[in-house]
Amino acid sequence: MLPSCAIYEKYNNINTGLVNYNEKCQELQGKFHSTAGVYDLCKKLAENLNDICTKEKMDDSLIYNCLYLEYWLNLQIIEKFRITDNAKYAGLRSQFYNTWTRSFSSLTGNFSKCTPKRIPFTSLNYSNVKDIKDMYDYYYNCEYFKKNHSLTEHERREYCSYLSSMNRSFTEFKNWCSDSSNKCIPNLKNSIDQYDPKELRKILHCNTDEATDTSLGVIPDQRGLEQNASQRYNELGDSPGSEPFIQPQDSKTSNSALI
């Protein structure tokens, strides 16, 4: 699977029986009596935070993993609870972030290593959150491709297929970054042309007769990447010149703020 997919799969499949945050997660569930699943998602968040903060060093890889955990949490909220309006999304998001930054942090000092960076979901309609996530996934995967030069032939062909599949999406990304849209991530705002999938295919020496599926993010066969992607996904952390999608924290917050 793709490097970005490996991270999300790891977060989704975390073992929730290792760390005891039952009381804090029960408190969070109690705030949403009619919303099933809050407790379970809270437990997954706690386990992933514990895993990241006890294993990762204080370096760029920690920043990237924390950032991806924020994307994962927001997408889980939208998909798991079938969000169809911004008010419900803002309410759930705010309470999950409060539990993350206050309740969990009060139990262990380790969690202070991984705190939300206020990525600007608050300025987006809930329906646009996945677009931002897809754009960042693309950026992350491209940086990974450029950094890892010792690819097997099978991996190279798989990555080439992925880049072909992203032609249509890249056109959308470029449009978002060329107007006043708030959907363009800072990493691509002034360098979008450097991530043209056609140009990146040249770097990987992709052949023109390879698969050219144009559906969003679809790869004909990902099995060849599954064994090593999850082991190498955090190698992007020290890629030269790249910065994670992090916005400075505002001094003022509205009632839709993350925290």
- Overall SS class: mainly alpha
**Morphology call:** globular
What's the oligomerization state?
A: single chain
Number of helices: 11
Task: Report strand %.
Answer: under 5%
Helix content: 40-55%
User: Biggest sheet, in brief?
Assistant: none
Structural Rg: 19 Å
Low-confidence stretches: 211-259
Q: How far apart are the termini?
A: 33 Å
Mean pLDDT: 77
Number of domains: 2
String of helices and strands: HHHHHHHHHHH
Number of strands: 0
InterPro entries: Plasmodium_Vir
Protein name: PIR Superfamily Protein
Region (Disordered): 233-259
Biased composition (Polar residues): 248-259
Characterization of this structure:
This protein has 259 residues and is mainly α. The chain is built from 11 helices and no strands. It has 2 domains: 3-123, no CATH class; 128-238, no CATH class.
Annotate the secondary structure layout.
Blueprint: H1 3-12, H2 22-30, H3 38-55, H4 60-80, H5 86-104, H6 129-147, H7 153-165, H8 167-178, H9 186-189, H10 197-203, H11 226-232
Helix pairs in contact: 1-11, 2-3, 3-4
InterPro entries: Plasmodium_Vir
Pfam families: Plasmodium_Vir
Protein name: PIR Superfamily Protein
Summarize, please.
The protein has 259 residues and is mainly alpha-helical.
Keywords:
single chain; 259 residues; mainly alpha; 2 domains; 11 helices; globular; disordered C terminus; Plasmodium_Vir; PIR Superfamily Protein
